[in-house]
Amino acid sequence: MRPSEKVDFSKFGNSFQENLAKLILFDRSYADQVGEVLDINYFETKALQNFVKLIYDYKEKYSVHPTLTLMASLVNNEIEEDNKLIKEEVRKFLVKVHTDQEVAGEEYIKDRALDFCKKQRLKDAIIKSAALLENSSFDEISELINEALKLGQNNDFGYDYVKDFEKRFELKARNPISTGWAKMDEISQGGLGSGELGVAIGGTGAGKSHLLVHLGAAALKEGKTVIHYTLELSDTAVARRYDSCLTGVPLNDVTVFKDHILEKIVGVSGKLLIKEYATRSVTTKTIKNHLEKLKNAEITPDLILIDYADLIRPLKSYGEKRHDLETIYEDLRGTAQTLKCPLWTVSQTNRSGYNAELVTIESISEAFSKCFVADLIFTLSRTLTDKTSNGGRFFVAKNRFGPDGLAYPIYMDTSKVKINIVSQDVNTTTQTPLKTQEQLLKQKYKELMGKNNGTNN
After folding, report:
1. Where exactly are the structural domains of the chain?
2. Fold adopted by 10-169
3. How many CB atoms lie within 10 A of CB 26?
4. Of 311, 324, 322, nearest in space to 276 by CA
5. pLDDT tens track of the chain, all 457 residues?
C-alpha cells in the first residue's frame, strides 16, 4: 500500500456507508465484531464519523450499547456546540434513521464492510512486520500477524444482559393494522402487528375467503399495500369480491355497475395486488420469491393475505399431513417476521366443526400445532340457519395480546362481502365471555388427574 493511498469506504458509495452506520446502531453484536477492526475515518463524511464515534464512545464509557432513542440525547449533549455544522448534519442523519430503519442488503453490507476492515488491519500488520523483519523479531512478527487475523471474529453469544440493557427498555412498535372490527381491534391492541401471524378458521362454505377480503379491504381504506395470494379462486373473482366489499354493490351486479365501481375504487388510497396460483402448485419458497421480486420493484407489503395456507405444498413432505402443515405455518410466520408485516391466512375445520354453532380450538383440522405458531386465532361458525339469516359467530380461540375465549355474534352477507360484529340483543347469549383457553386446559387437567386417582374431583 502506498503511503499516499486514501483508505476509506468511498468505493462502496454513500448509501452503503449510511446503512453500515445504521447496522452498527441497531445490531449490538455486529457493532462489537466490526468495532475491533473499524477505523471511523473509513467513513467519508464527518456526520457519519461523529455518529459512529458517539456509539462506540458510549459503549466504552458505560459498557452498554445505545439505542436509537438514546442517540438523540447523545447528539445534543456530546457534540460540542462550536461544531454546529457537524451537529446539524448528524441530527439530519438521525432523523433519516428514525424515518427509515430498514437496511436493504443487510448481509452484503455486513460482509463487505467487515472484509474491508479486516484486510486493512492485516495490511497494517504486514507493514509493521516489514520493519520488525530487519531485527529478526520472528516471534513478535508472528504474534502481530496472528492478532490481526483474530480481530473481527463473530462473537454473537446471544442477548447480553448488561450490554443490551437499553434494548429492553425501548418501546417496540407493533404497527398493527386494523381488522375493520372495533371489538376485534380492542382485544388485540389494534389488530395484527408487524411480524405476526393471524389465522381465521371455519368450515367448508362458511365464508373464509370473504373474511380475508374484508381484512384486505379494511387495510386498503387505511392506505396500506396489500398482497393477496389466492390458491383456490381466480384473481379476477377475488377482485370482484373487493369491488363488492369496498362499494357495497352486490356481487351479482358488479358487471352492471362497472363505471360506478371504478369511480369508487379509484379513490381508495391503498394498493392491492392479487397473485393467483394453482392449488398445491406452490410452496412457501414460491411466495417468498414473489415477495422478493416485489421488493426489487420497490413494492413493500403492509399486509399479506393467503387463501389459504392448507393448500400450500410443503417444501419437504414428512409423511403425515399434520407435520407438513406445521412446517408450512412456521415458514409463514418466519416470512412475516422477515418482512416485518402482518400475515393473515385461513384454515379448515375438521368434521366436528362443520355446521357447528360454535367452532372452538378443538375443531382445527389436522395440525393442532398451528395454534402454537399463530399469534391471533379466531373461528367463524355458521350453521345452515345462519347462512339463510346472514348470521354467525366469531370465537377468539387464541390471543397473545389480550383476552381469548370470547364469542361474538356477527352479521355476514356474502352477497356483498359484508361482515360486521353486531351488538348483543336480548335473545343472543354468544357474546358472553367464555372460559379462557388456559382455564379450559386447567379444567381438563384436573379431570384427568381425578380419573387417574380414582376420584370424581
Report:
1. 10-169, 182-451
2. DNAb Helicase; Chain A (1.10.860)
3. 17
4. 311
5. 455 567 899 999 999 999 999 999 999 999 999 999 999 999 999 999 999 999 999 999 999 999 988 998 898 888 876 778 888 999 999 999 988 888 888 999 999 999 999 999 888 888 888 777 777 667 777 777 778 777 777 776 777 888 888 877 766 678 899 999 999 999 999 999 999 999 999 988 899 999 999 999 999 999 999 999 999 999 999 999 999 999 999 999 999 999 999 999 998 999 999 999 998 889 999 999 999 999 889 899 999 999 989 899 988 877 777 778 888 999 999 999 989 899 999 988 876 666 678 887 766 655 566 678 899 999 999 999 999 999 999 999 899 999 998 999 999 999 999 999 997 543 333 433 444 444 544 454 455 455 445 544 4
At position 182, the amino acid (one-letter code) is A
Going by C-alpha positions, the residue among 296, 329, 301 that lies closest to residue 315 is 329
CATH architecture classification, 182-451: 3-Layer(aba) Sandwich (3.40)
Question: Which grid coordinates belong to 220?
Answer: 386498503
Q: How distant, in Å, are the alpha carbons of 64, 112, 162, 168 from that of 165?
A: 6, 29, 5, 6
The contacts of residue 136 (CB under 8 Å, 6+ apart) are: none
∠ CA 343-347-352, rounded to 5°: 150
Q: Residue 306, exposed/middle/buried by CB under 10 A (0-12, 13-18, 19+)?
A: buried
Mapped onto helix, strand or coil, the DSSP state of residue 175 is: coil
